[in-house]
Amino acid sequence: MPRVQTAKVSPPTTNRRPAKVDDTFYRHLVSSLRTGVLAITREGLLAVINDIAYRSLGLSPRAGDLGRHFTEVLGDCPEVISILQSAFDTDDLPNRAELRLRHTGKSIGYSLSRINDDDGHAHGATLFFKDLTQVEQLEERERLRDRLATLGEMAAAIAHEVKNPLASIEVMAGVLRRQFRDTDDAREQLDDIIKEAKMANAIVVEVLEYVRPIQLQPERVRLEDVLTESLSLAEGKIPRGGIRFDIAINPDVPDITADAHQLSQLFANLIANAFEAMNGKGHVSIRATLIQGDVEPLDGTHALPASVRIELKDDGPGISADDLERIFSPFFTTKPQGTGLGLAIVRKMVNAHDGRIHASSAPGRGTTFTVTLPVVPTRHYPLLMDTTEKEDGPHSRR
Ligand SMILES: Nc1ncnc2c1ncn2[C@@H]1O[C@H](COP(=O)(O)OP(=O)(O)O)[C@@H](O)[C@H]1O
Ligand SMILES: [Mg+2]
To answer: How far apart are CA 101 and CA 107, in angstroms?
Structure first.
């Protein structure tokens, strides 16, 4: 017969049974509880307080606290004092109630019980409680996410409404420009209007791109095609000047399953940023390599799928450590005319592909963006659902 794993609790022994559980056991029980525990006697002397109770109430333990009157020990927490005082005045004791400590701002969830002797006479009172601050933070984050989703819908609606008038402004300014072909002043001003309208339109397009939920249209994609397309998109936005550009794709890199249009946008944004940073000179290189996946996943659920790593490296001015922390945040820009949405969109697209992105840079040492994309996005495997943070760890400095 196969051996059965025994439970972790020792089996009962007939020859070593203690007459009763001794006091140390109860002391350990109270100090090991992951809940704050506090008990007072009928006379109001502090009988029990554990470390979690001190911590949750924002108090520091002092020798001799036990045995003192509870109002002296809990002087900083008048809310807790009045709750304990009420234990002997009412039969309706609060269970799962909440309070906010004024002196720490923390939220506490508690239940109050009377300690009765065998005859039902009140001996004392005890308070069990838990710090709810973390729970509140989670709820707050949840609410924030909801608000952001609504905000996103609003932004999309506004952006959409703004697009049409902008297009009209551009067209009408163009008509006027033709009419005032011979008047230099008017032509210059109309040129400015057209330029500004184009820029406003570009911002609206980026905002829309950022807030719009991504719907992938995956297909088999040849990386070289995507990168070539990205280069021409980037060149359409930012003049390349004398910047050298090369693409090196390792022969073992397979076609990947991805949304070709989005990948082109993604790399176009990265290339455009490099071109903008480099001011018409220097070198941008893209290298793609295959990373083999785990053949046999160790835990069955978190297999590392085969992926392609694409490194985009420039020898431009680089990024300071402070800025590096923020480059992926929406609206962070160091450019007078920037939207700060390029990299936020890039990250969104990478995440949609179950990929990762990482930036490494230092002032004067150029910048490298590393994008890792699964050969087949993990969400195509039912077993491999991992929705955790997709951005690679902290940004490193070189
Ligand atoms: N290759 C790069 N070299 C130097 N700085 C960069 C590079 N790529 C991005 N950045 C920095 O990241 C910021 C955010 O980029 P992005 O989100 O594309 O917005 P934008 O291009 O509108 O400023 C840029 O303003 C710039 O400071
Ligand atoms: Mg940009």
So the answer is: 6
